[in-house]
Amino acid sequence: MEKKVAVIAGDGIGPEITREARKVLDKVCRKYGHTFIYTDVLMGGASIDVHGVPLTDEAIETAKSSDAVLMGSIGGNTSTSPWYQLPPDRRPEAGLLKIRKALNLFANLRPAYLYEELKDACPLRPDIIGDGFDMMIMRELTGGLYFGERRTVTENGMRKAIDTLTYSEEEIRRITVRAFDVARKRRKKVTSVDKANVLDSSRLWRQVVEEVAADYPDVAYEHMLVDNCAMQLVMNPGQFDVILTENMFGDILSDEASMVTGSIGMLSSASLNDTKFGLYEPSHGSAPDIAGKDVANPIATILSAAMMLRFSFDMDEEADAVEAAVKQVLREGYRTQDIMSEGKKLVGTAQMGSLIADRI
Ligand code: NAD
Fold first, then answer.
1. H helix or E strand, kind and range, residue 231
2. Which of 26, 74, 123, 183 is deepest in the core (most CB within 10 A)?
3. Nearest C-alpha neighbor of 265 from the set 315, 313, 318, 326
4. Is 15 helix (H, G, I), strand (E, B) or coil?
5. Catalytic residue annotation
């Protein structure tokens, strides 16, 4: 199969970690007989330095004409980098919001998976961890409170701020359909998280979830209030398969879920639209403190590339092979600095990428 991949290396450790992900994808191509055609796209600080803006219209067009986008990370040291002297809409992160909007990436997927080999990094007690956990947080990304009307007014000498939380039936339906589709590729359970005891938007959310669920008799589903979900994530994370939720709840819960895995360098993510197109990037930032030192963990980006194979290219076998190679390398005791523990073998960014590629 031939696929076009736009690569946004970005800033900080971005170029190092995307290079390793490409190394792994190249091995997938050799082994399974695929061809991936890469186009480099500038975004974030790297684009500001060349074009004066964090994302050009040409860059968006290149992304749109590709089958998927693989991204490292963007941004610099927010206290010292000159990029942060620019107005907010010209700073590196503005590029990210612009591309999400331009590509209509409404579904954000963040897996939280506890590797047996990295159990020690998990902040939860062993009796809570049990046999581990493996969940996918699916967050609506382009609606809700973050995109509603907002204003600050002064009434009778008192300042008042207003944010509005709006969801249309259509916005809820498309992410719900995605969540049930993803659950079908996993353990077939969806937990829809809302605040239906208080919010109208949540009551509509529940109704639409139930309508969609009727089309998926093979997938079990339940509703859970967001405050309860926040507790359940640290009390019994093993109960979850797919967690489906709106933008702000998802923002908070996905960080909570990923942090209970304890390893920021291992966490992948995908943002999808209503076609097969997606943008794939690690959950972490550009880590300017360790950039260029060959110490960054490339696994989150490599696992994001595996998500690209699975969700944009329908290459499930190839995605399984990448994930299995990551597990094998960890089992053999190789660790980058961020996940290092006593008695293990310390390797750099490039060597970690090569070890994983070799095991495919
Ligand atoms: P960060 O995630 O870059 O770093 C937090 C800490 O984790 C640092 O100590 C860093 O060294 C470490 N770390 C992160 N990724 C690692 C990896 N792969 N291997 C080993 N260690 C790793 O968060 P930050 O320092 O708050 O942000 C730095 C920059 O990244 C900022 O400009 C921020 O805006 C940007 N950022 C970008 C994105 C994105 O592109 N989607 C996301 C988050 C932050």
1. helix 226-235
2. 74
3. 326
4. helix
5. 146, 195, 227, 251, 255
CA of 130 to the centre of ligand 1 (A): 30
Q: Would you place residue 112 in the very low, low, confident or very high pLDDT band (cuts 50, 70, 90)?
A: very high
Confidence of residue 101 (pLDDT cuts 50, 70, 90): confident
Q: Which atom of ligand 1 is nearest to the CA of 300?
A: 18
* Ligand 1 pocket list (CB less than 6 A): 13, 73-76, 78, 93, 96, 264-265, 281, 284-290, 296-297, 300, 338
pLDDT in tens, 50-91: 999 999 999 999 999 999 999 999 999 999 999 999 998 899
Distance (angstroms) between ligand 1 centre and the Cα of 282 equals: 10
**Is CATH 3.40.1000.70 the classification given to domain 1-107+267-360?**
no
For residues 273-299, average pLDDT:
96
Rounded Cα gap, residues 166 and 295, in angstroms: 43
- pTM metric for this prediction: 0.91
Considering the domain 123-140+166-260 in this protein, what is its CATH number? 3.40.50.2300
pLDDT at 83: 96
* Stretch(es) of the chain classified as CATH 3.40.50.2300: 123-140+166-260
